[in-house]
Design brief:
CATH class of the largest domain in chain A: Alpha Beta
Number of domains of chain A: 2
Largest interface: A-B, 85 and 85 residues
CATH superfamily of the largest domain in chain A: Aldehyde Dehydrogenase, Chain A, domain 1
Strand order of the largest sheet of chain A: 15-16-17-12-10-18-19
Helix content of chain A: 40-55%
Oligomer: homodimer
CATH architecture of the largest domain in chain A: 3-Layer(aba) Sandwich
Chain lengths: ~575, ~575
C-alpha cells in the first residue's frame, strides 16, 4: 500500500541548487580524470577561517572522556574502548550499543520516504553532508590521529580532502548513472494505419535495501565516505559498522550527516552507527538480516573473502589487501627512485593499502644511467634512504605516524624471527619527543630470493618490506604480476627507463588485473592516489571487488521501476 | 606474461565507422527512451529486397535433416532432437556436442586478443553482427517458428526487430558505460612549491571472464541477443547454451557471429555453442567451470533462483517468471479493455513473460462509463472476447501460435482438474487447417476468490488465466501487488479512469518493485515491449535480477585497470 508522501524536501532541493555546479564539475572530472578537487588539502592557517584549527582541536577534546550522544534506535547499552596510539591513553568515549533487530526495524521505517524522494533531494543532502564534513576537517583529523594512529598532517588530508574527494567522486558517479535514465518519457508511435499510440512513461529509481558499511581501523574515511554517500544517493539507508578501535572519526561524520537528514525533514535513521567490540562483533548479524542487501567492506583479506562468498547473494563491495610490488629495473636517477620507495615504506608505517611491500630487483643489477648497480648496493642504499627519513624522531613520527594496532608489533617480531639471517634492516621504535608513549616502529626489511619468497606472498600490514632478487627483469616482472594475480595487489609500481620494456611492463600488469604506477618520483609520495583521476582496486585480483569509483560501483545500487499510461484517444 | 598483440582489427574498426551513427543514435534513444528502431518489424515484401522472403525460407529448409556445421572446439559427438510444434515432425538437425573442459580451454585461448582489442573494434564487431542477424530475419523467423512454436508473424518480429532492438540497446548501453571512462588522461598538478607533477594515465577496460548465456525455449532471441552482445562488447567470450528444444535459431545466429569474428581476424571461439539434451544437461558443468564468471539466464523461476543462490559469487543475471496481474477497476470502454486483455491471454498462448495471467476484479463490479458491471458479466464478456479471437482456426493459429512444449498440455489438464467447478472457460485444441498436427490450446480461464487464490500464485506457463474477485479495488490492488512482490511479476497491468486512484495504483506497483502498464488498449498488444523505451524486469521481485537494459546490466561486466607513468622532468 502506498505510504504517506515524503517530507517537504524544499531544503534538500535548495542544497541541490547550491551545490549543483560542484556536482556537475565532479561528474565532468570523473569523465576526464584530470587533476581537480574542491576541498582544501592543507591545514595551513591562511587557507582556513581564523580560529578553525583551534576550534577543531577544542571540539575534538570536548569529545573525550564522555558518552558520544547519538539518538539511535534500538540502544541497549554502551561500547567504546578506543585508546590513542600516540599516547596509549584511553579516549574515554562511549557510544550507544544497538541491538540489530530494533535498529533495522527503525531503519526500514525510515526507508520509504527516502526511496520516494527525488534524485535532486537525495543528491542535495549528500552534497550538503560533504560540505559539512569538510568544515569539520580539523576536528576529524584529530579524531583520526588518536584512533587510527595517523600523523596529524596525513590525518588532515586523509580524513579531509582525500576522502571528501572520493566521496564526491562517488556521489557524482551515482548521479551520472541515475541520469542515464530519464524521469519521464513520452512514447508516441503509429503502428500500421491506426492512430498513433501515446504512452506517458515514468521511470522511478528504487533502492535495493539497507546497506552495511564496514569501516577500517587505520584509514577510516577513505573507502567509507564513498560507500555511505553512494548508498544514500541511490536511496539505500546505511548502517555504518566502524572498526572497534577507530570509532570516533566515523561517529562524528555520522552525527553530522544525521543532522543534515533531520534538517531536510527526513529521518536521521537513514544513517545509523552500529558499534561493537572485539569480543562481541555485530557484523555477521547485520549481514544476515534480510533487510540488508548491500555490504561495503574495507578490511582484511580473509574476512573480505568470507563476505564475498558467504553473502554473495547480496551486493558485496570489498577492498581488502594485497602484496604490492615494485619492479625496479632502471632509473634515470636511482637515488631519487630509492628515495621514493623508502618514503613509500615509511609513510604511515606502510599501513596504507597502496603502500609498496615487495621490491623486485634483477640479479645482474639495476641500471642507473650507464651503471649497473648490484642488488646488494641497491639494498644498502635503500636502507640508507630509510635511515635518513627516520633519523630524527620528531620528523620520523610526522612521516611514520603511530602503529594503529599493537598486533603489528607482534607481526614484526614474528616476521623477524621467520626471516632470521635475511633481515637487512631491523625495525625499531621511534617515538617522537612530544609523544614518548607512541606505538611506533621503523621498517623491517627482509631479503628473499624469488624462488623462496613465501614470506612475501601475503600482505604484511605495517612497516615490513622485502627485497626480492629475481634472475632478470622479466623474471622479476613475472613474479610480481603472478603474485598480484594470485595474492592480490591494490597498487603496483615499476621503475624503468627502457622505452621498449615499458609497454611490456604495462601489458603484464594489465593482464594480471593490477594497476601500476611507473617512475613515480615527483612531489607526492608514490602511493598518492587522486580521486577523479585514479581508480582504486580493479576487482580482477584478490585485493577486493569494489572499484572506487567506476560505473560498476554505483549502477546496481538502484533499480528502475517503470509505469506507462496510455493517453486516451491515442 | 604479455601475449602476442591482437590481430589487425582494421576490419572491425571499419565496421565501427560504418555503424557509429546508429550506435550513437541508439545511445541517445537509451537516454531519451522515446520510440525508435532501425530494424524492419514487418515481413511485408515491399520492405525487403526482392526474393528475401523466399531465400530465407529456402535457407531454413536447407538446414533440415542434416548436421549443422559449426567448427567448434572440443566436439565429442552430436545432439539434436528438435521437433516442430506445428507439424510434430523432427527437424532432423544435429549439432556438435562439446565437452566442457576442452571447449573452455579453447575459449580461454581466444580470450586475450579480444580483451586487448579496442572498444571500437569490439563494438564494430557487435554492430556488424546485428546487421547480419537483421539480414537473416526471414530464415531465423522460420527456425523460431518451428522450434519455439511462434506463429510466423510473431517470430519475424520476435526473433527479428524486437530482439535486434534489445541487442542494440544493450550494445549501446555497454558503449555508454565504457565511454564514461576515458582511454587516457594527463594528470598535471603542482604540489607545494615544486615543479608540477605530470602523469600520463591509461585506463584499460578489462573483461571479467567467460560468460555463459542460457537461452529459453519459447522466445529464444529476446534476452539472448542483449546478453551475447553486451558480453562481447565488454570483452567477455560467450558460451551459449540453448534450450534443447530450441537450438536452431540460436545456432544460426552463433554461426553468423562466428563468421563476423573470423572476418575481423579474431578467433570465432569467442562465441561458441554448447548444446545439450534433457537427459544430459550441461549447464551446471559450465557454471562450475572456474573460467566462467558471468551467467545470463532466461528460463524457469526454480532454476533461476538456484542459480542466483548457488553461483552468486559469479555475476548472475536472470529473467525468469512471475504471475502477472491485471487490475481492472474501470474503463472508458470496457469492451476495448476486455478485448486487449483477451488478446494478451491469446497471443502466443500466453507463452511470453509479459503475458497477463491474473485478472483482478472488485466484487461490486467494474465501472464502465456510468455503469457498474458485475464480475460475472465481466467474466462472460472476457470469455466471449477470447472466443471471438479463436473462433476461426486459421486466424486463431496466427495469434495463438503453437505450444512450445507438450508439458504445457499436461499443465493445463492438471490445473483444470485442480480448479474443477471453477473453470469458466475450457481450453481446447485449435489447430489451423494448414497444420492439423499443431500442438495448440485455447485459454483455460479459472475463477478464484482473492482469499483462496493459491492456484494463481505462480506462473502458469501457457494459456491459463485466472479471474480473481476481491472485496474492492484497493483489495484487488493490494492482492496484485503483494503477489508481484512475493511470487514475481515481469509485467503488470491496470485499467482505471479515476484520476485520483491512478497515482495510488502507480505508487503501489512501484513500492512492490513491479512495472505497470495502465489503460493499454492501443494498436499494439498490451504486452508489447519497446526496447530503448521500456525497461524489462526490475530486479526487485522474484521474477529475475537482470534488467534489460539499464546501467546495472552492463557496468560490472568490465573492470578498469590503470597505469600512470610519470613524465621525466616533471
Amino acid at each position: 500500500m502506498p505510504e504517506p508522501r515524503p517530507p517537504d524536501a524544499a531544503r534538500a532541493e535548495q542544497w541541490f541548487e547550491r551545490w549543483e555546479d560542484r556536482l556537475e564539475r565532479a561528474a565532468r572530472a570523473n569523465r576526464e580524470r584530470d587533476a581537480w578537487t574542491p576541498f582544501v588539502e592543507s591545514p595551513s592557517r591562511r587557507l582556513h577561517p581564523p580560529g578553525a584549527a583551534e576550534a577543531g582541536k577544542a571540539a575534538f577534546r570536548a569529545r573525550l572522556g564522555r558518552p558520544f550522544s547519538l539518538d539511535l534506535p534500538g540502544v541497549v547499552g554502551t561500547v567504546g574502548a578506543e585508546a590513542s596510539p600516540w599516547t596509549g591513553a584511553p579516549l574515554g568515549v562511549t557510544y550507544p550499543r544497538v541491538a540489530v533487530d530494533p535498529l533495522l526495524e527503525a531503519v526500514q521505517a525510515a526507508a520509504p520516504a527516502w526511496a520516494r524522494a527525488t534524485r535532486r533531494a537525495r543528491l542535495g543532502v549528500c552534497m550538503e553532508v560533504l560540505a559539512r564534513w569538510s568544515d569539520q576537517t580539523f576536528e576529524n583529523a584529530y579524531a583520526t590521529m588518536h584512533t587510527a594512529g595517523q600523523a596529524f598532517m596525513l590525518a588532515f588530508t586523509g580524513s579531509g580532502a582525500s576522502s571528501l574527494d572520493r566521496g564526491l567522486e562517488a556521489t557524482a558517479a551515482a548521479w551520472s548513472a541515475m541520469q542515464q535514465i530519464p524521469e519521464r518519457a513520452t512514447f508516441e508511435r503509429a503502428f500500421g494505419k491506426g492512430a498513433p499510440v501515446r504512452l506517458e512513461k515514468r521511470y522511478r529509481l528504487r533502492p535495493v535495501g539497507v546497506a552495511v558499511v564496514l569501516t577500517c581501523g587505520s584509514y577510516p574515511a577513505w573507502n567509507a565516505w564513498p560507500a555511505i554517500l553512494v548508498n544514500l544517493a541511490t536511496g539505500n539507508p546505511v548502517v555504518v559498522k566502524p572498526h572497534p578501535d577507530t570509532i570516533l572519526p566515523v561517529a562524528i561524520a555520522v552525527e553530522t550527516a544525521r543532522e543534515v537528514l533531520r534538517e531536510a525533514g527526513f529521518s536521521p535513521d537513514l544513517l545509523t552507527l552500529a558499534c561493537d567490540t572485539w569480543d562481541a562483533p555485530v557484523a555477521v548479524d547485520l549481514f544476515e538480516h534480510p533487510a540488508v542487501q548491500i555490504i561495503d567492506f574495507t578490511g582484511g583479506q580473509a574476512f573480505g573473502r568470507t563476505i564475498e562468498r558467504r553473502w554473495a547473494h547480496k551486493q558485496v563491495y570489498t577492498e581488502t589487501a594485497g602484496c604490492n610490488a615494485v619492479v625496479l629495473e632502471s632509473a634515470d636517477d636511482l637515488e631519487s627512485a630509492l628515495g621514493a620507495i623508502a618514503l613509500g615504506l615509511v609513510l604511515f608505517s606502510a599501513q596504507m593499502c597502496t603502500a609498496p611491500q615487495n621490491l623486485w630487483l634483477p640479479r645482474a643489477g639495476v641500471r642507473d644511467g650507464d651503471r649497473l648497480v648490484p642488488p646488494a648496493e641497491v639494498e644498502a642504499r635503500l636502507v640508507a634512504a630509510i635511515d635518513r627519513l627516520v633519523a630524527d624522531p620528531g620528523a620520523a613520527a610526522g612521516l611514520c605516524g603511530a602503529l594503529h594496532s599493537a598486533r603489528t608489533l607482534a607481526d614484526i617480531a614474528t616476521l623477524k624471527a621467520a626471516a632470521s639471517d635475511r633481515v637487512v634492516r631491523d625495525s625499531a621504535p621511534a617515538p617522537p619527543p612530544d609523544h614518548p608513549e607512541a606505538r611506533t616502529a621503523t621498517p623491517l626489511v627482509v631479503r628473499l630470493d624469488a624462488d623462496d619468497r613465501a614470506l612475501a606472498q601475503q600482505e604484511r600490514f605495517g612497516p615490513m618490506a622485502f627485497v626480492i632478487v629475481a634472475d632478470d627483469r622479466d623474471a622479476a616482472l613475472a613474479g610480481a604480476t603472478a603474485d598480484a594475480q594470485r595474492f592480490g595487489a591494490i597498487a603496483s609500481y615499476a621503475y624503468t627507463t627502457d622505452p621498449d620494456w615499458l609497454p611490456v611492463v604495462l601489458d603484464a600488469f594489465a593482464e594480471a588485473g593490477a594497476s601500476v604506477g611507473v617512475n613515480l618520483v615527483g612531489q607526492r609520495p608514490m602511493n598518492y592516489t587522486a580521486a577523479f583521476s585514479d581508480f582504486h582496486v580493479t576487482g580482477l585480483n584478490p585485493a577486493g571487488t569494489a572499484s572506487l569509483t567506476d560505473p560498476g560501483f554505483v549502477a546496481r545500487r538502484f533499480r528502475v521501476v517503470q509505469s506507462k499510461v496510455e493517453v486516451a484517444g491515442s
